[in-house]
Amino acid sequence: MLKKIYLNKFNYFIYLILLELCNTNANIISHKNAVLLLADDGGFEMRSYLNKICQTPNLDNLAKESLLFNNAYSSVSSCSPSRSSLLTGLPSHQNGMYGLHHGIHHFNSFETVQSLPKILKKNNIRTGIIGKKHIGPSNVYPFDFSQTEENNSILQVGRNITKIKLLVREFFSQNKTKYEFFLAFKLIFLY
Question: Which positions fall inside the Sulfatase N-terminal domain (predicted)?
Fold first, then answer.
């Protein structure tokens, strides 16, 4: 019962975001853009999560004008299943990503799964991903701009801030039209 309530609330949340992104009015030109920051092994290291030790002023300023996830849940505590859940609104056992996507495992989401990038693409919203992707197949997660470990060194796209900055500039230079966009960053924290 609790699981069903969670799924309903989570799916409702995802669909509200999608409806808001896809809602357009012919008389009013408004662009709704989204940037998703996701980090491996990232916790509450930001001041916006009331951490007084770590100084993260740029992220804190961004957080003041953003939606923060304060009560997120993942049914599997590894990267591929949790990423696929975030991008589909479905737990891993329903989207097919039972385990890791890379290496000898090669788990994939089911071909019939409707993901956030797929739905946004159908609504002419340009999508991009920079950093660690770790999900598949590509036709379920069809990002328009993809600079990940699949076509770069993970040390460059997941950890090299200068390289990430240049890739963000490249994404925006290719997005000079007035399209709305969704850009996901998948960072790897170093401790």
Answer: 32-139
